[in-house]
Amino acid sequence: MAYSVKSKKSGKMYYLHSKEVKLAGGRKQRIFYFAGDERKEVLDALPDGYKVIENARTGLPMLKKK
């Protein structure tokens, strides 16, 4: 089951995803993002050490380190 959050502002469901990206210097970094649909990178749980916050202006969910 995918980890999802419902926006308090819009009421829309967002699903948590993660993928590894390659930075300009060649270093790899894992990123987390929310999307309105389930894709192949969907996560089942919130990563350790993170919490979900919501942007007050846009209503979009974001991850923040605890």
Summarize the structure.
With 66 residues, this protein is mainly β. The chain has strands at residues 4-6, 13-22, 28-35, 50-54, 61-65.
Explain what this protein looks like in three dimensions.
The chain is mainly β and 66 residues long. It has one domain. The protein has strands at residues 4-6, 13-22, 28-35, 50-54, 61-65. It has a three-stranded antiparallel β-sheet with strand order 1-2-3, with no helix packed on it. It has a two-stranded antiparallel sheet with strand order 4-5. It is globular.
Percentage of residues in DSSP E strands? over 45%
Per DSSP E runs of 2 or more residues, the count of β-strands stands at 5
Helix content: under 10%
Number of helices: 0
Measure the end-to-end span: 24 Å
Topology as a string of helices (H) and strands (E): EEEEE
Q: What strand line-up does the widest sheet have?
A: 1-2-3
What does the overall shape look like?
A: globular
Radius of gyration: 13 Å
Overall tally of domains: 1
Mean pLDDT: 95
Sheet with most strands:
3 strands, antiparallel
**Which structural class best describes the helix and strand composition?**
mainly beta
Given as residue ranges, the uncertain stretches (5+ residues, pLDDT < 50) are none
Label this structure with key terms:
3-stranded antiparallel beta sheet, single chain, globular
Helix/strand layout:
Elements: E1 4-6, E2 13-22, E3 28-35, E4 50-54, E5 61-65
Antiparallel strand pairs: 1-2, 2-3, 4-5
